[in-house]
Specification:
single chain; about 375 residues; mainly alpha; 3-stranded antiparallel beta sheet; about 5% strand; globular
Length: about 375
């Protein structure tokens, strides 16, 4: 936090270390997008810069929203987003073989993005209202399972497996932190493993290909396995210090597909090397650590659960994308937030950070009054 003798008091109370980290990550993303376009701000870097500035401003404004307001809006927000998901299924715009958007004329909304923070908030509110003594009872399980299962099913049929995974993992994090018995998670994981053959048979053809390529990337190096193969080549060719800014051959020669979206980390590491990749991961780690610290310092159960869930959402965003581009997980279409081109991921992460800043501000205000 910067001294109020240097800047006005309201601005001095912002978590500037976090903001500098976010700006640093976003700037590295803009440089990578600039390089991916052959040294041009069009068509990606300029649009991404506007999205970063817009949603960073939204996050800062959200930091002044009271925790009580967020708590009161948790259920209404969830219901609105759930209705929007139902409308997507009924009236949604179809693009690239998926039905994920609501076309409002002046903008196309993807409601599934809003469900990522919404599911965290509504489950945190549910367990905040639930008596602590009931946490191991059936009444602590089935309502939360229903609130999580409904949007997950609606998102899965769009189909959008990546977003569905993030929504489920964010919700499960809240349920785990709330104190549900470990046997439920172990049992659920066992049932999921047993159901994998059935789930595989119900997948779309392109999803089955992704699973098979994950198991054996070299089985189709010029077809379905092309993305992973080229991603590994780009990452490996970067070496320790990289080939240098604007010198990434894999992306510039179009060998690396989606080098500005899902596989942007490979594009970045080819030019900035292991050192650049490690610094980016450390920066994300510092952001997530800050969020978990907000959770641990929270004095209310709602803020504790919500902060943990929001931080976990960012963690899963980053970790799944990194595992994906390194061939450690199937390709499920999850971008690297604040780095990959696309306003949806920027919006989701900034909404999470805005609420985390709100909780952190509340903690400092409470500590100051107590002192």
């Amino acid at each position: 936090m910067i001294s109020s003798a240097i800047i006005p008091q309201p601005l001095a109370r912002l978590p500037w270390r976090l903001i500098f980290l976010v700006v640093g990550i976003g700037t590295l993303g803009l440089l990578t997008l600039y390089s991916s376009a052959g040294g041009s701000v069009q068509p990606w870097a300029a649009k991404q810069a506007m999205a970063l500035l817009l949603f960073l401003g939204v996050a800062v404004m959200m930091s002044w929203v009271k925790e009580s307001t967020i708590k009161a809006l948790a259920l209404p927000i969830y219901i609105v987003v759930l209705v929007m998901l139902i409308l997507v299924e009924m009236l949604g715009f179809v693009g690239k073989g998926a039905q994920r958007w609501l076309d409002l004329g002046f903008i196309r909304l993807q409601p599934s993005e809003f469900m990522k923070p919404a599911i965290v908030l509504v489950l945190a509110r549910f367990y905040d209202l639930l008596p602590v003594g009931d946490i191991s009872k059936w009444r602590a399980i089935w309502p939360a399972g229903l609130m999580l299962g409904l949007p997950a099913a609606l998102i899965l049929v769009q189909p959008d497996l990546g977003t569905c995974i993030l929504v489920v993992l964010g919700g499960l994090t809240v349920m785990f932190i709330a104190g549900l018995p470990m046997r439920l998670f172990v049992g659920g994981a066992t049932l999921l493993a047993l159901a994998m053959p059935v789930a595989y048979s119900m997948m779309h053809e392109y999803q089955r290909k992704r699973v098979m390529i994950f198991m054996d990337p070299e089985s189709d190096p010029l077809g379905a396995g092309y993305h992973i193969s080229q991603s590994k080549i780009a990452i490996g060719s970067g070496g320790i210090f990289g080939k240098g800014f604007l010198n990434g051959s894999q992306s510039h020669l179009d060998y690396l597909p989606e080098g500005h979206t899902d596989f942007v980390f490979a594009t970045m590491v080819e030019e900035w090397g292991l050192v650049g990749g490690a610094l980016l991961i450390l920066a994300f780690g510092a952001v997530i650590r800050w969020g978990m610290k907000v959770s641990m310092n929270s004095r209310s159960r709602f803020a504790q659960l919500a902060a943990a869930g929001l931080s976990a959402t960012i963690f899963f965003y980053v970790s799944i994308n990194l595992m994906m581009v390194m061939g450690l997980a199937p390709v499920v279409g999850i971008p690297l937030p604040l780095v990959s081109f696309g306003g949806s991921a920027v919006m989701t992460v900034m909404l999470c950070l805005g609420m985390l800043m709100s909780f952190e501000r509340q903690q400092r205000t409470t500590s100051r009054l107590a002192g």
